[in-house]
């Protein structure tokens, strides 16, 4: 499997927050909702997106990826002070403390200060990082703005229509459309900025390293050794170790351990039905005890604490 496919295998929205936002200048929104990742499509007008470093402008058609959970602002112009604050649970307050969610509601899936405003956005928020996959989150910058031609406008149009409909299974369809749009956007960002992509993605250009990565990614439960990987890749141990180190920036066995524990983190939060023994077996650990010790060393938390909602 292409290493990029592993990166993009994570998005699995479950009841994600999706909304059509319609605003008339002057306007400004401070986002403190704590979402792990927010995808924004500017469908008309423009928006200034600022994660706290001055930000950048996105124009009609552009797609914005904002990695959380830190706050950021959306405004109609640079340095515009926000007048509305969005808190966890999508609770919205004006500067005077008045709750404004209802007053800014304009029909199904539509929210803003003017239903006929010139600045319109499609907003989709993944509230839990297990929905996106920690591997994808770790690969993304805090803020990325992609030109509109990097995603399919038909998909954007369909998502926009579904958000404002009241048809059966609307929420589930919105989730799947949002996932597809996110995968397109992440893929485009990686293709457009290869120098900023994770080193192991660019390592796919070395066939030996690409094969080793494929084996590790697809079979983390296998009892891999350097010799075993080298044998399947049809090279010597020293050749694999050298080429892997140069391409990925870390030794094969170190990478294997990190990958296993990354997969385990997603399993712990996305599959609460799996016990620790089952999780350990899926990522190549012989016992829950050995897995727990390695996981705590890697994350600073025991698997049980990591899985608890308070750790999210």
From TrEMBL:
This is AraC family transcriptional regulator. Residues 210-309 form the HTH araC/xylS-type domain. SMART domains: HTH_ARAC. It comes from the Bacteria. Keywords: DNA-binding, Transcription, Transcription regulation. Pfam families: Cupin_6, HTH_18. The keyword DNA-binding applies. Signal peptide: none annotated. PANTHER family: HTH-TYPE TRANSCRIPTIONAL ACTIVATOR RHAS, HTH-TYPE TRANSCRIPTIONAL ACTIVATOR RHAS-RELATED. InterPro entries: AraC_lig, AraC_XylS_family_regulators, Homeodomain-like_sf, HTH_AraC. The keyword Nucleotide-binding does not apply.
């Amino acid at each position: 499997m292409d290493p990029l496919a592993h990166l993009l295998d994570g998005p699995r929205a479950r009841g994600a927050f999706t909304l059509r936002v319609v605003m008339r200048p002057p306007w400004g929104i401070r986002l403190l909702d704590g979402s792990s990742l927010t995808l924004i499509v500017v469908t008309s007008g423009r928006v200034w997106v600022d994660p706290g470093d001055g930000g950048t402008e996105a124009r009609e058609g552009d797609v914005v990826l904002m990695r959380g959970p830190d706050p950021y602002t959306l405004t109609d112009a640079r340095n515009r002070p926000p007048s509305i604050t969005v808190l966890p649970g999508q609770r919205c307050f004006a500067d005077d403390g008045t709750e404004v969610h209802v007053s800014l509601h304009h029909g199904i899936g539509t929210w803003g200060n003017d239903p006929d405003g010139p600045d319109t956005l499609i907003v989709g928020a993944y509230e839990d990082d297990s929905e996106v996959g920690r591997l994808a989150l770790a690969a993304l910058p805090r803020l990325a703005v992609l030109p509109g031609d990097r995603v399919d406008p038909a998909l954007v149009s369909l998502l926009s229509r579904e958000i404002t409909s009241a048809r059966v299974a609307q929420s589930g369809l919105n989730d799947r459309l949002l996932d597809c749009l996110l995968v397109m956007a992440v893929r485009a960002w990686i293709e457009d900025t290869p120098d900023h992509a994770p080193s192991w993605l660019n390592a796919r250009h070395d066939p030996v390293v690409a094969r080793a990565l494929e084996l590790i990614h697809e079979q983390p439960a296998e009892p891999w050794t350097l010799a075993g990987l080298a044998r399947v890749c049809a090279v010597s141990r020293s050749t694999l170790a050298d080429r892997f180190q140069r391409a990925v920036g870390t030794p094969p066995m170190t990478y294997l351990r990190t990958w296993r524990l990354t997969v385990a983190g997603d399993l712990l939060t996305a599959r609460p039905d799996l016990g620790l023994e089952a999780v350990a077996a899926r990522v190549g650990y012989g016992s829950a005890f050995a897995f727990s010790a390695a996981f705590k060393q890697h994350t600073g938390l025991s698997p049980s604490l990591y899985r608890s909602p308070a750790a999210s």
